[in-house]
Every structure is written in structure tokens, then in C-alpha cells.
Design brief:
The structure holds 2 protein chains of 2 kinds. Chain A is α/β, with parallel strands linked by helices. Chain A has helices spanning 61-69, 91-96, 114-119, 130-135, 137-157, 173-185, 203-218, 230-236, 254-259, 261-267, and strands at 21-32, 35-46, 50-54, 76-81, 84-85, 99-101, 191-195, 222-226, 239-244, 247-252. Chain A has 2 domains: 21-108 and 188-270, Rossmann fold (3-Layer(aba) Sandwich), CATH 3.40.50.300; 109-170, no CATH class. In chain A, helix 5 (137-157) packs across helix 6 (173-185). By secondary structure, chain B is mainly alpha-helical. In chain B, 73% of the residues lie in helices and 0% in strands. Chain B starts with a helix and ends in a 6-residue tail after the last helix. Classes of the chains: A alpha/beta, B mainly alpha. At the A-B interface, helix 2, helix 3, helix 4, helix 5 and helix 7 of A face helix 6, helix 7, helix 8, helix 9 and helix 14 of B. Chain A: Residues 23-270 form the ABC transporter domain.
């Protein structure tokens, strides 16, 4: 609700008409029994950018993420997607509005095949409504065929096509990360919140994942990225925000921010 | 010989009424993970609604609409389905274990209501003279038994294929996704409450249908038929057969009913008449032992969960396998 625009800290946000923020958080706060995991934090993700969200462990990044994605309701503050207040909506509604997320620890449906996992990301399928599934099998088969084609395209894009018919539980950690991404891309999100897509991924696969993220961004998807791999952040993000102890510590171009003495101190464990 | 045949038909018909109920529970528990421990209550609602709709009017009891049996059965299913919907709407938003408490409570309330609402349900005396399908054939017992068996086989098949159509559709896939990881399914835009509510209500409809069929087959119902033992029996059937697997649900119903019926005759022949009422508890013990054995030897039931990939999808996959297996290289 509070429409307070941040001061001159952010380099590009004074003219909303020119640099429309597709996703913005306004003074978000979340406390857990008195402890403020996120404390009065505002953030703007602009149309078509990759914004990095970094910070030491326990900085509140994932809490921030969960609030943006809708898995956690904020204690106060508001979240706007395309200018619309979505603060009180659940994750499933936000996804239908075009805001998707991956999980830090991937959560595949273990007993379903890779292809079925990806198909679960399809939106607006008539076969997902009990009545259409029962009374209009033709229409749902048609939708399913279209979804299947798209799912195949995505498994191909994310190097999973040889595993299509394997149960998701047999996938390696890196493959699970890819599956997370494939599933969410199935929903055609405008904004993706990526939670540590590189954690536990071997260097070769990491290069591939980065290439895919760039491709997506070129296709117009705006991305908010949590990542500990500074090299990846520096290469992918046009802008970085640093969090420590639930608050914003710095914001700006990756190379400048990483050298900021405050940031270095926070990472070396002297944040207090 | 004829006697044996009619007994076989009678036995199978009864087992198949349980199979229908078990299919309903399979949709709720096996496919969706909804812990319904009030099966007896929903079966009772199906049985009573159908009986009230189809029996002729009787003095001193409200209802008795003398409607065709088909309408009674549909009414019974709808009654149980609507009840499940209302109960689900109240409790499915809460933590999963609340559903168990609520359904158990509902079953007790339903049983007590049937017992005390004499003006509608006949109270402890229940409802008698429930019209049986092919009642006109009653003079020829074996033909009558076989005709009834035919009706029940048809009902099981219709329920089976209807549920298969649902569970193999994308709708069924969402149910499984929600069962496996609700948080992840929500992140993919699936609203858990809506899907669970639908599955719970449809499962309730099938249970009510099974209850109605059973009532018309026995011809007489009373509140005593719908004690928690019934819930226990149906659960055992599903677990023994393999929850999540519809064929398992049917197989489990027939097997457990066989144990139940055979042990019943055994008790009747072995124990002296004055001990029989007490010895009948052995039946429940036997069912319990069967359940333990299955859980020890085949933890997922005799048939386990079937692969639920859509058959056409599987065919398409096989077709494309050759063309795809070579083209793993991705171009970005």
C-alpha cells in the first residue's frame, strides 16, 4: 500500500514511466517470533533485467524470495506485480499472473517421470478441470498434445530429453535444478525468481545453465537471481543488491558492489 | 450345484458392492492422500438416501417416494458426494489430520442421526422392503442372483472406467503432484484446496453409489450396518489390494470379503450357538492378521500403484523414441 518511492539510492527508478518495474517490493518486513529476517526492504525488478540478490548466509535472501513468490506472507509491506498489489495472494495465484520461482533445494515430484513433472507446469489446460477431463476428452487430449510438444521442447532445451521417461527421483542434483527450470518455464512466466540455480552443479553444467538463463532473458523474461557464485552473478546480472541482516547493504553494478568495503566486511562475517 | 452357483453369485455381488466403495476410497486416499476414516458414514448416507427415494410410502415415516432404482442410486451417490463436499470445504484448508478427525466425527454423527431420526430413517429398525433390481425374477433364485451379479459387474466397470478416465487425465496428474509435494505444486499454479475438494466429493459420490447398491442388494438396512467396523473393512480392502491402484481396490475387496465370509461360516460351524456371538470377533482378528501379513510381505499391497501415464501418451512416447534417441544434442 505504501507508495514511498526509494530515495536516490537506486540508480534508475525515479521515472516510473520510462523504467517500469515489473516486480516491486515496498518496505517488506517479515519477523519470526520477534526476529526480523527481512527488515523494511524495498526492491525493484525492471522489465527485462537480471537482478542479482546476494548476501552472506542468514541475510534473509530466501525469506525475501519466499515472500515475493507467495509461499510466505509478509508481516508488513507490499508486493506489486505489473503495478498490481499481490501481497496477499498465494503462490498458485502469483504463478498464474506470470511470477514463477524455483526452489533452492529442488522439489521434483519424485514418483512422476521427468516429462510428467514438466507437464505439471502447463497452465490453463482444459484436462486439468475435472469436468472437462471427463466430459470433453477430445479437447483435453488436444491441449495435452500441445503441452506435450512444448514439454518436449523444454526438456530438449534443458538437456533432459534422454531422461524423459525416468522417474524424477533418479535425477542427480544438477539435473533436478534443470527440471525445476523446465517445469516453471512450461508456465511461460514473465518473471522468474531463481534460487541458487548453480549450487551443487558441476562447472560444465554451470556454463550450460548460465547460457540458458541468458537465452531466457533475451526472450524477455525478467529474472531475480539469488546466487553465491560471484563469478556467475558478475557475468549474468546487470545490477546487484546486497542484503545483510535483513536489510539492504548496497546496490549497483556487480563489479562495483563486490568491491564495496561494506559488502566485503559483511561477507567476511563482521556484519554486526 | 445350483445352490453353490447362487451362493457364488451372491458372494461376488456382495464383494463387488464393497469394490465400488473401495474405488471411492482409492480416489480419496490412493490418488489424493485424503485420510477419510468416516467411510461408513458416507456409505450410510448413500444407502439411506437411495432407500428413502425408492421405497413405497409407509405410515409413520416421512419419505418413501417409490422412485425408480436408478434414480435412488444416483441420489444416494449425490447425497454422499454433497456431504463430502461440505465437510471438505470446512476442513480441507486445515492441516491434513483434521480431515481424519472430522470424517470420523461425521460418521459417528451420521450413525447416531440414523438411529434417532425415526420419522425419516426408521430409527433402530431401519428401512425394509428396499426394492431389488430384477425383483420380478425372485421366484428363480439362481437367475435372480446372476442378474444381480450382472448389475454389480456393470456398476464396477462403469465406476472403474469413469475413474480411470479422470485419474489418467491431466486432472489426475495434478492430484498426484499435490500428493507428492504440495508446495511445489502450488508453485506451479495448482490450487490444492480446489483439487482435493473435487477428489473428495467425487470419491464420496462413488462411496454413496456403492452404499446404495449394497442396500438394494440386501433389501434391508439399519444403523448397525454402518459402524466403524465397515470403515475398517474398506480400508483393509484397499491396503491389501494396493492403494493407488484401482484393480487392487477391486481385488482387495473380493479377497477381504472372502476372508470375512468364509471365517463367518467357519465360526458358525465350529462354535456352539451360545458362543457364536463372541466368536464373531475372531472375524475381525482374522482381517487384522491378513492386513498385517500383507503389510509385512507386500507393503504396497498385492498390486501396488500402477503406472498412471496416459496410455495414448505412452504410445506416442514409444513412437517418438527412435527419432528422439539420437537427437540429444541441444542447440541454444
Amino acid at each position: 500500500m505504501t507508495q514511498t518511492m526509494e530515495g536516490p539510492q537506486g540508480p534508475i527508478e525515479t521515472d516510473p514511466a520510462k523504467t517500469e518495474a515489473i516486480l516491486s517490493a515496498r518496505s517488506l518486513t517479515r519477523s519470526f517470533q520477534g526476529f526480523k529476517a527481512v527488515d523494511d526492504l524495498s526492491l525493484d525488478l525492471h522489465q527485462g533485467e537480471i537482478l542479482g540478490l546476494i548476501g552472506p548466509n542468514g541475510a534473509g535472501k530466501t525469506t525475501m524470495f519466499n515472500m515475493l513468490a507467495g509461499s510466505l506472507l509478509p508481516s508488513s509491506g507490499s508486493i506489486l506485480l505489473d503495478g498490481k498489489d499481490i501481497s496477499r495472494e498465494g503462490a498458485e495465484k502469483r504463478l498464474r499472473r506470470g511470477l514463477g520461482r524455483t526452489f533452492q533445494i529442488p522439489r521434483p515430484f519424485p514418483e512422476m517421470t521427468v516429462l510428467e513433472n514438466v507437464l505439471c507446469g502447463a497452465q490453463g489446460q482444459s484436462g486439468e478441470r475435472a469436468i472437462s477431463a471427463f466430459f470433453r476428452p477430445g479437447k483435453s487430449r488436444q491441449d495435452e498434445a500441445r503441452a506435450l510438444e512444448k514439454a518436449r521442447h523444454l526438456t530438449d532445451f534443458l538437456m533432459l530429453s534422454h531422461l524423459e521417461n525416468e522417474k524424477a527421483r533418479v535425477l542427480s542434483g544438477g539435473q533436478r535444478k534443470l527440471l525445476e527450470l523446465a517445469r516453471i518455464l512450461m508456465a511461460d512466466p514473465k518473471v522468474i525468481l531463481l534460487d541458487e540455480p548453480a549450487a551443487g552443479v558441476n562447472p560444465t553444467l554451470l556454463q550450460e545453465i548460465m547460457a540458458r538463463i541468458v537465452t531466457l532473458n533475451e526472450q524477455g523474461v525478467s529474472i531475480l537471481l539469488i546466487e553465491h557464485n560471484m563469478d556467475m552473478v558478475a557475468r549474468l546480472c546487470s545490477r546487484v543488491m546486497v542484503m545483510a541482516l535483513g536489510q539492504k547493504l548496497a546496490e549497483g553494478a556487480p563489479n562495483a558492489v563486490i568491491r564495496d568495503p561494506e559488502v566485503v566486511r559483511a561477507y567476511l562475517g563482521d556484519a554486526a | 450345484m445350483i445352490d453353490l452357483l447362487s451362493y457364488g453369485a451372491f458372494f461376488l455381488t456382495m464383494a463387488l458392492t464393497y469394490a465400488v466403495i473401495c474405488l471411492g476410497l482409492n480416489l480419496q486416499w490412493g490418488q489424493t492422500g485424503l485420510f477419510n476414516v468416516g467411510v461408513a458414514g458416507f456409505v450410510a448416507v448413500g444407502a439411506y438416501v437411495s432407500s428413502i427415494l425408492t421405497t413405497p410410502a409407509i405410515d409413520g415415516r416421512l419419505g418413501g417416494f417409490d422412485l425408480p432404482i436408478v434414480i435412488g442410486w444416483l441420489g444416494g451417490g449425490l447425497g454422499a458426494g454433497i456431504l463430502c463436499f461440505l465437510l471438505g470445504a470446512l476442513t480441507l484448508r486445515l492441516r491434513a489430520d483434521y480431515l481424519a478427525i472430522a470424517t470420523f466425527g461425521a460418521a459417528v454423527v451420521i450413525q447416531l442421526t440414523l438411529l434417532n431420526l425415526e420419522g425419516i430413517t426408521g430409527g433402530p429398525f431401519g428401512i425394509g422392503f428396499i426394492p431389488r433390481p430384477f425383483g420380478g425374477l425372485a421366484e428363480n433364485p439362481s437367475l435372480f442372483a446372476i442378474a444381480n451379479l450382472g448389475v454389480l459387474i456393470l456398476l464396477v466397470l462403469v465406476s472403474y472406467f469413469a475413474l480411470q478416465r479422470l485419474t489418467r487425465s491431466p486432472w489426475g496428474r495434478v492430484l498426484r503432484a499435490l500428493r507428492e509435494d504440495e508446495e511445489a505444486a502450488k508453485a506451479l499454479g495448482k490450487d490444492p484446496v480446489t483439487y482435493r475438494l473435487q477428489a473428495f466429493a467425487i470419491g464420496g459420490f462413488i462411496m454413496g453409489l456403492g452404499g446404495a447398491a449394497q442396500a438394494h442388494f440386501i433389501g434391508f438396512i439399519a444403523p448397525d450396518n454402518y459402524m466403524p467396523t465397515l470403515t475398517f473393512q474398506v480400508w483393509t480392502m484397499l491396503i491389501v489390494g494396493g492403494s493407488g491402484n484401482m484393480r487392487g481396490a477391486i481385488l482387495g475387496a473380493v479377497l477381504v470379503w472372502a476372508i470375512w465370509a468364509l471365517s463367518g461360516s467357519l465360526v458358525a460351524s465350529v462354535f456352539p450357538p451360545d458362543q457364536q456371538a463372541r466368536a464373531a470377533s475372531l472375524q475381525i482378528v482374522l482381517i487384522g492378521v491378513a492386513l498385517c501379513l500383507v503389510l509385512l510381505l507386500r507393503p504396497y499391497g498385492i498390486l501396488g500403484e500402477a503406472g498412471t501415464v496416459r496410455a495414448p501418451l505412452r504410445r506416442a512416447l514409444r513412437r517418438d523414441l527412435n527419432s528422439h534417441s539420437e537427437g540429444q544434442k541441444t542447440d541454444v
